UniProtKB/TrEMBL annotation, chain A:
<dbReference type="InterPro" id="IPR036465">
    <property type="entry name" value="vWFA_dom_sf"/>
</dbReference>
<dbReference type="InterPro" id="IPR002035">
    <property type="entry name" value="VWF_A"/>
</dbReference>
<feature type="domain" description="VWFA">
    <location>
        <begin position="15"/>
        <end position="204"/>
    </location>
</feature>
<protein>
    <recommendedName>
        <fullName>VWFA domain-containing protein</fullName>
    </recommendedName>
</protein>
<dbReference type="Pfam" id="PF13519">
    <property type="entry name" value="VWA_2"/>
</dbReference>
Automatic annotation (TrEMBL), chain B:
<protein>
    <submittedName>
        <fullName>PP2C family serine/threonine-protein phosphatase</fullName>
    </submittedName>
</protein>
<dbReference type="InterPro" id="IPR036457">
    <property type="entry name" value="PPM-type-like_dom_sf"/>
</dbReference>
<dbReference type="Pfam" id="PF13672">
    <property type="entry name" value="PP2C_2"/>
</dbReference>
<feature type="domain" description="PPM-type phosphatase">
    <location>
        <begin position="19"/>
        <end position="256"/>
    </location>
</feature>
<dbReference type="InterPro" id="IPR001932">
    <property type="entry name" value="PPM-type_phosphatase-like_dom"/>
</dbReference>
């Protein structure tokens, strides 16, 4: 008989899912470059978070969306195994966020059949108003996500990019009024906000939830630099 | 098989608790609590564990958990003389004790709150609007009066009894509201809706030991469905092969690993009967004086 009581232990997965807008408007003002830079910069921070969370196996997925959703990293991947390939914005691409959320909810169906995983963390970045050329409205996509057990319990954070970001839709995506909704107006802010969101999400997602509210307590960073994306449009 | 004298069995209590790695990381106190009591002469014993919620809305849950185990031991001690048979009357008595635990816990929380009012910053979280919420905790308890055993529980965690052949069973009904992400709680509206109780005839069911543990012990097990059976079988095997002294020495190590890997506080309490064949039983009774 082994002297370890209760059998083998395994770190529970903590799924980190980035949902990134690559619509045509992301080509303006260097936004897509800034988004790529932000993801590149956030990876070392996520590695630090993984080290700071010995109880959780931090796994990353990336879903991009314009005219349609497309998995950039579909399989849950340990953060130290990610080699980021720069995303390209889709010229004249729409903002099919509803379809993206529907795809996301379908992926969450297979997340973890047991009760042992942490709630996932979902970080949405978008610079425009959701379109519905695919026939799926934002409301339908969001409802599909919230109808999913993991989608409903996920730590959901959102970042708007520039003045055309639909902050109302992003607030609906977050759901919890106590969670800050940030809008980046320049590349430096986008990097800082994504890093903040990633850290805040990992802290919260790895704690048990009791009652309502996401438990996000991290204070967001103050805006830095000039608001170039708001002034340029 | 047991080797029973005519006298009522005597129950030995063991317990341990370890802070979770997430709480160490976040510089939070341990939010589990455990309390045991036994009276060797009477053959009576009570064990209780509690798991404070730890979420930002439950910022005094370490105190809530401590008050929960004190309340449980107090109230279960009161009813031990009434537990003469594992029948419906005993089950109803345990259910009334569950209601008394909720009442006692609420009174203790209110007393603590009077002495330690919420600060303006805590009030911003809505603490005064729902004054019990900050103290939110689960409670699991088991009591033995000779061959009659009582179990009660509100919230997550595991209550397991182990027969003398090593077979483990869960004496309490399932709580349908437990989904792995949320837990029932002493601080919820109508906590008695989530109260689960059971009485067991330890003689008829050949009960050798009982263990209670907070969810930190089991949540990170690879065998999510069978870990508790394995734990029960192992505990009985270890008690027989190494003695209870060794089991007590091992408890901190057994709790430390899930607390590190799972991240959550991890607590276990055991009731072990003295007359199960093969168990080496030095005098290990953990007695904690409880105000009458």
């Amino acid at each position: 008989m082994s002297d370890r009581l209760g059998g083998a232990l395994a770190r529970k997965p903590l799924h980190f899912i980035f949902v990134l807008d690559v619509s045509g408007s992301m080509m303006r003002g260097g936004r897509i470059q800034a988004l790529n830079n932000a993801i590149t910069e956030v990876l070392p921070h996520l590695k630090d978070e993984a080290r700071a969370n010995p109880h959780a196996e931090l796994l990353v997925r990336v879903l991009a969306f314009a005219n349609e959703p497309q998995w950039i990293i579909e399989a849950p991947t340990p953060v130290d195994q990610i080699h980021w390939k720069r995303l390209e914005a889709v010229p004249r691409g729409f903002t099919e966020l509803g379809s993206a959320l529907q795809t996301l909810s379908g992926a969450l169906d297979h997340l973890d059949e047991s009760n042992s995983a942490f709630p996932p963390a979902i970080i949405l970045v978008s610079d425009g108003r959701p379109t519905q050329s695919s026939g799926v409205t934002f409301a339908e996509g969001l409802q599909a996500l919230l109808n999913n057990r993991w989608g409903a319990t996920a730590v959901r954070l959102a970042l708007g990019v520039g003045r055309d970001a639909d902050m109302h839709s992003l607030r609906r995506f977050i759901g919890d009024e106590d969670v800050p909704l940030l809008r980046a107006d320049n590349p430096e802010q986008l990097v800082e906000y994504i890093v903040w969101a990633s850290k805040a999400a990992s802290k919260v997602a790895s704690r048990p939830v009791v009652g309502p509210g996401s438990g996000v307590t991290a204070v967001p960073p103050s805006p830095i630099g000039d608001p170039i994306w708001s002034t340029l449009g | 098989m047991t080797d029973r004298p005519d006298a009522d069995p005597v129950w030995t209590t063991l317990s341990g608790t370890t802070i979770g790695s997430v709480h160490i990381r976040d510089e939070l106190p341990i939010q589990d609590a455990v309390l045991t009591w036994s009276d060797q002469a009477q053959g009576h014993a009570v064990v209780a564990v509690a798991d404070g919620h730890g979420h930002k809305f439950h910022f005094r849950s370490d105190t809530g958990a401590a008050l929960a185990v004190i309340s449980a031991v107090e109230e279960l001690r009161r009813i031990l003389p009434d537990l003469r048979a594992a029948d419906e009357a005993a089950r109803e008595r345990v259910a009334r004790a569950g209601a008394a635990i909720v009442e006692t816990w609420t009174a203790k929380v209110e007393h603590h709150l009077t002495a330690n009012p919420y600060s303006p910053a805590e009030d911003e979280l809505g603490a005064s609007a729902d004054p019990l919420r900050a103290y939110g905790s689960t409670i699991l308890a088991a009591a033995a009066a000779g061959d009659v055993m009582a179990f009660l529980q509100i919230g997550d965690g595991d209550s397991v009894l182990v027969a003398s052949d090593g077979t483990a069973a869960r004496p309490l009904p399932e709580d349908p509201d437990l989904d792995g992400l949320h837990t029932s709680s002493l601080c919820q509206p109508r906590p008695l809706d989530a109260l689960r109780v059971a009485v067991v005839d330890a003689d008829a069911d050949q009960v050798a030991l009982v263990f209670l543990c907070t969810d930190g012990f089991g949540r990170s097990r690879v065998d999510a469905d069978g870990w508790w059976r394995q734990t029960g079988e192992q505990l009985l095997g270890f008690a027989r092969t190494h003695g209870l002294g060794w089991v007590r020495e091992q408890l901190p190590e057994w709790l430390a690993e899930p607390a590190l890997i799972g991240g959550d506080d991890t607590t276990m309490a055991l009731l072990v009967r003295n007359d199960v064949a093969g168990i080496v039983r030095p005098d290990l009774a953990d007695t904690v004086p409880v105000p009458e």
